[in-house]
Every structure is written in C-alpha cells, then in structure tokens.
Amino acid sequence: MRTYNAFPEPIGGFTVGRIQMDLEYTASDHSTRELTAFVYYPSDSSEGKTTSTYMFPEVYELLNEQPLVTEDIFSIDIKTRCYDDLALSGKEKRYPVLFYVCGGGGSPEWGTVLCTDLASMGYVVVSIGHPNSTMYKREDGRLFNVSKDFSDVLIAFSEDPEMLELAGKMEMRPDDETAIAMCRDVLTLPVLAKLTEYSELQAEDVRYVADYLYQLDSGEQNSIFKDRLLLHIGMGIAGHSYGGLTTAMVCRDDERFACGIGLDSGAFGLLGSDLKKPFLLLYNEPNYNMNAIIGANNSMETYYFSVDRVGHLDYCDIVFTSVNEKLRGERDAMEMRNLVTDYTKNFFDHYILQKAASVESLTYDGVDLIKKTSNK
C-alpha cells in the first residue's frame, strides 16, 4: 500500500488559511455544548509560515480510548497544505460559505483535504468538533473524546440482530420500490432512536455556528470575516458517513442552507422528511438501501451516484493517511480525492454560485448516476 508524507497540493489558485475558534451554547436538551471549529479560507500568501499541524497528537491518542478501535487505522505524520492565521484574500469582496461534518467517532480534521481544496477554490469552509460524537482539542487546550454513551449506541447498532438481518437482505442496485421498502424497515428500528438524537444535536451545533458566522460578518464579533462572507445566496454543507445525517437535517431545518451532500451516508431520522433542498449522495453499493427514502421524499433534485471499488473511509483523509490496507478500497488515493472534490465543487458551484457546472457532466470510470429525482 502506498504511503504519503504530504497531502496533495490544493486544486485551486488560492493559498489556504486556517483558524480555530472555541464556541459554547446551551442546546435544546439544556446541555452545554462546548465546540471547536476549524475554518479554512482563501488567502493570498502563506506569509512564510510553516504548514498547519494535521491532528494534535493528544487527539490522536484519544482513539485508543474508543472501544470500537481495536487496531491502527491511520497516521497523523503527514504535511497539510494550509497555514494557520493568514490574512483573508483580497481578490474578492466576499466569499461563499460551506460546512463539513466528519463521521461519528472521527475528528473535525478528518476532512482537511476536501476543506483545503474547496478553500483554495474560493470557499470559506467550516468543520466542527461536536461534543460526545467526535474527538478534538479546543484552543483552550481541553480534550474532548467520544462519549461512552455514543460508543455504546454505535456498538448497539452494529450488533443489533434486526439490523444484521436486514443488512443480509440488501441487494446490489435494487429497484426503487425494493430500496425504499428496505430503507423504511431500517429507519423504523428502535436502535436508531438514540443515534438520531445525537445527529440532531450535531445539526443544532451547525446552526449555532452558522449564527456565529453572521455575527462575524456583521462585525458584532471581531474577526477577519467582517463584511467578507457571501451569506445571502445560501450556504452549503457536506457530511461523511454519520455526518451525512447531520447534513440532511440541516438542509431540512435551516432555510439559510441552499443544498447538501452525503458521502456514503444513510437516512436515520429522515423517514418523513422533505429536505426541500438539492441533495447529492455519493456512495458505495449497496448503500442505496440505506438512503433511498431521501430522494423519495425530497421535493428538490436528489442525485444518487454509485462509486465502485472504494472503501467507506476513502471519502475522508484516511485515503491518504491509512496504515491499514483492509480499510482501503481499490482506487488510487489521488483519483479518489479528485473524484470527491470534483463532485462536491461542481454541485456547490451550481446550486450556490449558480454556475453552469454540472455533476452530470463528470465522467469517472465506475461512477454511475443511478437516479436523479425531483418531486416538485
């Protein structure tokens, strides 16, 4: 298996800056949510600085405390292509905004390659550390690991007899009726209730940070983003795996978001939901069985792209940092990076910036548009 000592150079023309912000608020369940957020953004110069640290070593060590992790998964000994605390580029008056949501049990840095690529092409991209369901180090130095309760919920789901029985019946490339029926059966499992609650809290985190971005843009909070964020056209959001559920919930519940992307994600908590936003799903078979209900209910365009020869974790940075060959698919890491970045950028360029870019025009071997639906 090929190893990498650096992430690929960003695709776009901007140098990429990164800042970290600690935030805190009271959620709807009355819990105090202590967040951190990494913001990737366009800059004009690296100012002679060294590249940002990828993941803090203390955060990486938290993996050993997670019961689901029984062997080495990835290395953090890799060079990023972003720089801490740069000036915001002066090439444009304002920049559009995206959010990225990592998978459950992961870290907000796991999307560094995609976030850096998108920032290099002129987007401001926010990746949040979510209490209980992700691991991170705040600027104040405190460490947050995945909670035992969240780990227990994930284990319960992975071992649930009803879920295992349904998984054994999932077909590759099922017809719509079969996939929707299977998806309904999955989404009504009692074991999903608690997972859905955590995802809803993550969606609240995203909405709170979105509120904060409005304060940064207005100057209510001092930052480099005063009068520099292009918010009125709508924001975009993408999420990998469990983070894709949060992405869909944000699209459904917050009119400020124009569209969303789920990277090999499901539809937990979305049984009766009309997202009312364009949505793209990039996934491995037989995952259509887990998310078919999204397109069946959505009144806006829903794209389903099936990708062959990939592993579940190939959609995040582990495509470059993996030390465990069993976790990787068969595609070259650079090809997979280009694939995910192209589909993500083209989708957001079209639905946020109103460019002519189209995901349907992209051609990658083994990537098929299975379905495009709209129930308008």
TrEMBL record:
Species assigned in the record: Paenibacillus phytohabitans
SUPFAM superfamilies xrefs: alpha/beta-Hydrolases
Record key words, sorted: Hydrolase, Lipid degradation, Lipid metabolism
Tagged with keyword Hydrolase: yes
Pfam families assigned to the protein according to its UniProt record, in alphabetical order: PAF-AH_p_II (PF03403)
Protein name, UniProt field: Choline esterase
